[in-house]
């Protein structure tokens, strides 16, 4: 028969066992750092929004020209360039139209005006030029192609001007007579010629092919900062 343990001795044994127990270790605090919240980048602007923003930073002009709705915003290797076509509504015969060029800086979605060239190209008569465009065919940098002309004392002449948009500003590459008609002043042997620019090799050469009273071609080659006519003198007569 197992001897009975007095109640006081059993309580003492339980107390001693509790003193030797190892307490539970507290859970360690998390060591990872909270991740910063991602900042949403602004949504990209549409071409129309960028054009509207660019127009806000250019000067209004001196009032001589009215600018139409054919503005162009170019992204060039040296930054954005805004091109504007202006015409003079009440101009006389000798006055032409204009292409203005504004070199911009774009930072954090905003434009700043760097340099202004209000008469980067001028051509035509009666306050306007015939047409204009931007081409990447003639040079590595963008080239303005501006056409304009008029009639003087019965002789009609139209020129095509090539203007390169360089980091230092717009610069003339060449000016070519592409329309000639002296039938209004020459009664015996009038000439009518129309030329088109073909066989374009970027930064090297192009050819102007003429049709009309007679047919011939003239080749221009790039030498330094300009395209020059081989042979040095055009077959197009003067007025």
UniProtKB/TrEMBL annotation:
<feature type="region of interest" description="Disordered">
    <location>
        <begin position="26"/>
        <end position="50"/>
    </location>
</feature>
<protein>
    <recommendedName>
        <fullName>Lipoprotein</fullName>
    </recommendedName>
</protein>
<keyword id="KW-0732">Signal</keyword>
<feature type="signal peptide">
    <location>
        <begin position="1"/>
        <end position="21"/>
    </location>
</feature>
């Amino acid at each position: 028969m197992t001897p009975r343990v007095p109640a006081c001795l059993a309580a003492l044994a339980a107390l001693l066992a509790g003193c030797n127990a190892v307490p539970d270790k507290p859970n360690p605090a998390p060591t990872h750092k909270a991740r910063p919240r991602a900042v949403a980048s602004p949504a990209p602007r549409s071409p129309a929004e960028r054009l509207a923003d660019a127009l806000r930073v250019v000067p209004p002009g001196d009032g001589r020209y009215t600018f139409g709705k054919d503005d162009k915003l170019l992204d060039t290797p040296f930054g954005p360039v805004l091109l504007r076509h202006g015409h003079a509504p009440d101009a006389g015969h000798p006055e032409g139209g204009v292409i203005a060029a504004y070199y911009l800086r774009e930072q954090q979605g905003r434009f700043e005006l760097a340099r202004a060239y209000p008469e980067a190209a001028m051509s035509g008569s009666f306050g306007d030029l015939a047409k204009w465009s931007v081409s990447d065919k003639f040079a590595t940098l963008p080239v303005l192609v501006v056409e304009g002309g008029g009639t003087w004392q019965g002789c009609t002449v139209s020129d095509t001007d090539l203007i390169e948009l360089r980091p230092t500003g717009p610069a003339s590459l060449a000016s070519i007579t592409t329309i000639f008609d002296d039938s209004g002043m020459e009664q015996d042997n009038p000439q009518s010629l129309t030329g088109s620019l073909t066989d374009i090799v970027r930064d090297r050469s192009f050819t102007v092919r003429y049709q009309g009273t007679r047919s011939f071609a003239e080749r221009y080659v790039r030498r330094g900062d300009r395209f020059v006519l081989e042979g040095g003198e055009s077959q197009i007569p003067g007025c």
